[in-house]
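debug: dumping io for the single-chain case to check the tokenizer round-trip. Nothing else runs in this session.
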Amino acid sequence: MDEKILDYGFSEQELEELLTLVSELAEKFTGSESTSVSYERAQSLMEAVLYCMGECGQSGGVAPTDMTLWERYEAGLSILREKTDKIRRLFNALSDTFDDYGVKCLSDTVKKGIPEFLRWYDIIFAPQETILTLDYPLLIDIGNRRGADAVYEYLCAIETEQRFLGELGRGYVVSVLERFDACYEDMIENICGVVLPDVFGHAVLKKNFAATSPGFGEDDIARLAELFAGKPVDLLEKEIKQFTGSLVARYYGGDVRLREYLCAEAGNLAARISMAARCGSLGAVFHQ
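debug: decoded output
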């Protein structure tokens, strides 16, 4: 018996109900034209059922233990249908103002990938399949989410990024990307992860930034080196999070999702700054 099934802790009676449910799903899949399916297909259909039941467990509604497996499966399907509709609505709303800033990876993932997901996603027979590779990296880890769960969380993150970058202004964002990499269009990097160090550096130096800003000069880098010299990584991370919180409170109405999203990069940025300060290479972090 599949170890994944045993991990759910089903009783013997529930296992019988589960197998019956999978058998009925297999019959739908074959259109009653065949009495059997391949082992791989049966395994996939079992995963489909378990995935839907898992959706019910995450719904925050009636406790799954108070429902039969069939009820959990049906409730999970309903949740998935609603989540898929949310993805469609979110994508349509995002499309009105979406800006890829010339980064092909972001453009392909969102503009091409999401419509393909909505076209081919199979809620009944393969709801666990994400279909997309979601190549454009996020600042957060969406973990082991699959299917509509993964795509919905991913698209929410993209929407959050768009709000952050949009307020900064397209000209400024592009100028930072150009300083980061002359061929930034082909990069597979998170745009916010590239821009955030620049914003933080300007704030530390109390230096205004704009699309016409040349970035950081030698004197700026020397000053940053003085300010960061010998500063522990944990203290740097705390300062970056405090700065991020103030930034979001002042310019983004205290958007909690945005603050948490950007703060997810604080540890990584702090480690990079600390290492660069020790090696005398802060210009690489702040895209001199």
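debug: round-trip ok. The two ends are 59 Å apart (CA to CA).
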